[in-house]
């Protein structure tokens, strides 16, 4: 099977840093003990920079700076409008340098440049959204006629620990930074070790926008070192984590000792269910984009396609032909649709699943490295048909450009297949039957459902998964709820009936 590909030029952005440092208390610093780790680019798999590897001492310093800024600084005490102005300036700055951001993100992650640009713009939009939200925010009051008025006094929780993954790193960091800062928290961000490049840009963006020193702190490092120290730190009352389910389980256990607030956005294996009455052209476009965009390194990827038997053969033939025409190659080339996977370790994992799939399904497209791309972490968009629900490639998150197709006969069978995995992040339903669409949507185990669409987000709606895909929902006011405490204040308006203990 010949894949369409574009050759790599190994484009290197101008002024690429060769060392990536922490940002603590308003200053770029190395690790106290001088520890570093190597950072590779996914096209050459060569080390292009060393990054400071944070240890317990570095996390202690970052948390101390964030705690001081929270306890004594202006940020938590500012009027919402004043904080919103700063957040809008951040959004403006991200927008103004979206091309540079995309270039660096593409270099570090292997994401296609056009998609990295879209992610940079989304990062800006996240700040704008939460800036508007805090200005419009109202809190509840409750009247007990003649007796009480009670109101909610919303307060930022304190130092928020933010731990993020390597897929779309800058955008996913914005998804946590924007609501945490909007709420008045101060933060310590621990970005993913595969992709630390773009996170360091936040420091300058925030400083220029007027975020006081100590409000934003960044500690790079390995999950089991810097991440673990942040999770266990007693002065960090809440952790927002996005990453793998198994890592989430470890963090959950480690948060228990200090009873921390937690938000967990975890893995997925989301179904796209295509009924025979669907608009087939649109369903094919959408399910291709749903799993092959962002290199398939996407938590909400529609990585299991379930297709009604009467259209199954037609769907498979058309889907496979399109998958073979997807342009794979140089992430910096605007023609590229699938770039290079983030890291050789992840590439090996995805290729391992491609080999497993060859004995679990019928290979229709891809199945290995595209011709003409002998270096870099390239995988041809890979399609397996006739995949049984017991197959590992049906059950396990691959997080790469690999999709399974499985036929079904009835609505009940489609639902059982859709729900027959441990995950429950997203589901995509393709049908023109309104009743079926709503009944299916309400029965499927998924935190988010799209009818006749791929993942198009309305930032006000809840974001998150059920089962092994997560704990709690962020998105809109729910994010503000997570980063704030809702204190109930009770005001007495009349004499209170009080039993007179000891009064005879
Ligand atoms: P990962 O779990 O390996 O790492 C995520 C982050 O956790 C990294 O910063 C890492 O350093 C840190 N970490 C690792 N071990 C830690 C520990 N013991 N204590 C504290 N921190 C630790 O995930 P990844 O491979 O970077 O990202 C891919 C995963 O993320 C996929 O499973 C994907 O589905 C998931 N994801 C989910 C969503 C969502 O919203 N549900 C979004 C994007 C990605």
TrEMBL record:
Pfam families: Aldedh. Keywords: NAD, Oxidoreductase. CDD domains: ALDH_F8_HMSADH (cd07093). Signal peptide: none annotated. The active site is at 265. GO terms for molecular function: 5-carboxymethyl-2-hydroxymuconic-semialdehyde dehydrogenase activity. InterPro entries: Ald_DH/histidinol_DH, Ald_DH_C, Ald_DH_CS_CYS, Ald_DH_CS_GLU, Ald_DH_N, Aldehyde_DH_dom, DH_HpaE. The keyword Zinc does not apply. Residues 28-489 form the Aldehyde dehydrogenase domain. GO terms for biological process: 4-hydroxyphenylacetate catabolic process. It comes from the Bacteria. PANTHER family: 2-AMINOMUCONIC SEMIALDEHYDE DEHYDROGENASE (PTHR43720). Belongs to the aldehyde dehydrogenase family. This is 5-carboxymethyl-2-hydroxymuconate semialdehyde dehydrogenase. It comes from Cryobacterium ruanii. The gene is hpaE.
């Amino acid at each position: 099977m010949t894949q369409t590909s574009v050759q790599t030029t190994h484009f290197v952005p101008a002024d690429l840093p060769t060392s990536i440092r922490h940002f603590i208390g308003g200053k770029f610093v190395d690790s106290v003990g001088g520890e570093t780790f190597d950072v590779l680019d996914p096209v050459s798999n060569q080390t292009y920079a060393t990054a400071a590897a944070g240890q317990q001492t570095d996390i202690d310093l970052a948390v101390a700076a964030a705690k001081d800024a929270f306890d004594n600084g202006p940020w938590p005490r500012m009027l919402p409008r004043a904080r919103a102005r700063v957040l809008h300036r951040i959004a403006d700055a991200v927008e103004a340098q979206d091309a540079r951001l995309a270039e660096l993100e593409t270099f570090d992650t292997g994401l296609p440049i056009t998609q990295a640009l879209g992610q940079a713009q989304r990062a800006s939009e996240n700040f704008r959204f939460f800036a508007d939200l805090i200005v419009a925010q109202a809190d509840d009051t409750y009247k007990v006629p003649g007796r009480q008025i009670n109101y909610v006094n919303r307060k930022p929780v304190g130092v928020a620990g933010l731990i993020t993954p390597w897929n779309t790193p800058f955008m996913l960091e914005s998804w946590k930074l924007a609501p945490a800062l909007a709420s008045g928290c101060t933060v310590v961000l621990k970005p993913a070790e595969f992709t630390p490049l773009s996170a360091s840009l936040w420091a300058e963006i925030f400083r220029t926008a007027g975020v006081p020193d100590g409000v934003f702190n960044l500690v790079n490092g390995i999950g089991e070192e810097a991440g673990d120290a942040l999770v266990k730190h007693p002065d960090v009352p809440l952790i927002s984590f996005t990453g793998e389910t198994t890592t989430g389980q470890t963090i959950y256990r480690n948060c228990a000792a200090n009873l921390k607030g937690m938000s967990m956005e975890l893995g997925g294996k989301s179904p796209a269910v295509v009924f025979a009455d669907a608009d087939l052209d649109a369903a094919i476009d959408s399910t291709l984009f749903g799993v092959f965009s962002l290199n398939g390194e996407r938590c909400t990827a529609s990585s299991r396609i379930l297709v009604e038997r009467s259209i199954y053969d037609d769907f498979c033939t058309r889907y496979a032909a399109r998958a073979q025409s997807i342009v794979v190659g140089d992430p910096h080339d605007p023609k590229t649709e699938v770039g290079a996977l983030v890291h050789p370790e992840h590439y090996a994992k995805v290729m391992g699943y491609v080999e497993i799939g060859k004995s679990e399904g019928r290979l229709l497209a891809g199945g290995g490295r595209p011709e003409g791309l002998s270096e870099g972490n390239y995988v041809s968009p890979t399609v397996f048909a006739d995949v049984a629900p017991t197959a590992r490639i049906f059950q396990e998150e691959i997080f790469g450009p690999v999709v399974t197709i499985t036929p079904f006969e009835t609505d009940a069978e489609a639902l059982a297949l859709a729900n027959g995995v441990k995950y429950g992040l997203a589901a995509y339903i393709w049908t023109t039957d309104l009743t079926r669409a709503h009944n299916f949507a309400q029965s499927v185990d998924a935190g988010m459902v799209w009818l006749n669409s791929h993942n198009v987000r309305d930032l006000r709606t809840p974001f998150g998964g059920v089962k092994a895909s997560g704990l709690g929902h962020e998105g809109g006011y729910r994010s503000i709820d997570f980063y704030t405490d809702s204190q109930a204040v009770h005001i007495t308006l009349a004499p209170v009936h009080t039993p007179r203990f000891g009064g005879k």
